[in-house]
Amino acid sequence: MNGQKVRFSLFTGADPDYNQSKRSIAPHVMGDNREDRVMDVYYIGIDLGGTNVAAGLTDETGRLLGKFSRPTPRGAEAVADAIAQAAREACRAAGIAPEAARSVGVASPGSIDPAAGVVEHAFNLGLDHVSLAQLVEERLSLPALLENDANAAALGEFAAGAGKPFRSLVAVTLGTGVGSGAVLDGRLFTGFNYAGMEAGHMVTHRGGRECTCGRRGCWETYASATGLIRSTREAMQAHPESGLWRFAPTLETVDGKTAFDAAQAGDAAARGVVEAYTADLACGIINLIHLFQPEVLCVGGGVAKQGDYLLGPVRALADREEFTRDAARRTRICTAELGNDAGIIGAALLPLYR
Question: Domains, the chain, ranges and CATH?
């Protein structure tokens, strides 16, 4: 098998067998129900994280049939070995042989060249200009596709989560930074150089907090969980009498829930933190709506578990500030639905949406 040739045809959507019949492959099924499942088509998805390699086997709708997770090693060969092992174990959990899968998709952090299948930079994984797709193909004998992890998560939500009924979606993930991805008119948007949708580095506070990217005032320095924790600590230092200290006895124990928990308990300083945070989050979300006008914008990550307590004020600000606030059709702002499975599902379904 010529890995480069297969990878190119999948990326451009030129797989002749797929267009003729999605169900042309008769997979190898482990177990007694081969007759019931022989015509199904399967895809393997990998979410490659700094801590764990999470793998899943899905059908063509994004339904997860089996999962497996293991710690992430460092270095190209070790990472590829871990991906292959996790993929095989996920297939085993589903009762499906790995060779039944049509392809394997890998969602990776860092700078990615999906067309070449190369991780250009993912220093926390020890990867620097690594042809990861080729290494995975060699181990699994399957066509491999590579994508940025935030883009894959957006695709997962579009295909099987919050965006399932729609044709366009923007996904925002609130974590250490702010991840974002977009599916527009049913296609994953990456920019011509695959570096698009770095919304976390959109400046919302000119001259504001210093960002790891080298700029000041990036959205993620305020709207990420890291930014929220920083704001909470600043409020605690400014207000030693605040009830925030009851929820986090030391600055080191502050997390993304601290301010919300204290605010719900009636603490004034915490309410100030939450109000400022939701306003900062809304600023970036409204900017993204103005740029893309997606049918749905979903918000995921740990902070998003606050649900309507977080998004209610964001929607209220959008009602006042959106350019299209009086339009008959407006973007739906909601929480993401797939949680940690979004990246696995999106990676698995890459060949269907490129």
Answer: 40-148+344-353 (3.30.420.40), 169-337 (3.30.420.40)
